[in-house]
Specification:
Layout lengths: L4 E6 L4 H17 L4 E4 L4 H8 L1 H5 L4 E3 L4 H10 L3 E6 L3 E2 H9 L3 E6 L6 H6 L2 E4 L7 H12 L14 E4 L6 E4 L1 H10 L1
Parallel strand pairs: 1-2, 1-6, 2-3, 4-6, 4-7, 5-7
Antiparallel strand pairs: 8-9
Helix pairs in contact: 1-7
Length: about 190
Amino acid sequence: MTEKEIVVLRLGHRPERDKRMTTHVGLTARALGANGMILASDDQKIEENINEISPRWGGSFFIKNNANAMEEINNWKKEGGKVCHLSMYGINLPDIVSELKTEKKLMLIVGAEKVPGEIYEVSDWNVAVGNQPHSEVAALAITLDRIAETDPLLKTFGNAELTVIPMGKGKKIVHDNELIEKNKQKK
C-alpha cells in the first residue's frame, strides 16, 4: 500500500502578527501526520523553529520557506496531487471526508489573512470546517484527524531524543542521551 503524502500550504503569514499561529500550524501538521509545510512567506525564524522539532521529538517533517503559493499549487497538481482549501466556506467537511480519505497526494491550504479568490478557483475542494469563524489550526487538526487512515494520536515518532510516557498523573519524559549526543555532533 502506498503511503499518503500530505503537505500543508500556509498562506498569508504576517511575520510579526502570525508567528505563533504559523508555528502552531506546522506543529499540528507534523503531530497529526502531514509530511511537511510550505510557507508562502519569508520567515527564517519559523523555519528554524520547526526544523528543530524533528531531531528532538522524532520523525521527519520538512518546511519550505518563502514559496510562491500558485507555483507550489500548480507543481503539486502537475505531479498528480489534489488541493483542498480549508475555510468556513465550501462543502462541509463531513460531506466530503470520505473522498478526501482516498487521496494519496493531498495539499491542505490554510490562510491567515484574507485568502485570494484564485485559491478558491484553483482548489479541487473548498472545504468548510464548520460554518463559523475559527482558527486555521483547529481546521487543520480536525481535517487531519478525520482523513487519517489510523488514529493520528497514537502515532509514534522514531528516532526521537525525547519521548513522553503517558501517565494518569504527573509527567515523564525519557531522554535518549545517545541520540542527543549523536545529533549534537552533527551540528
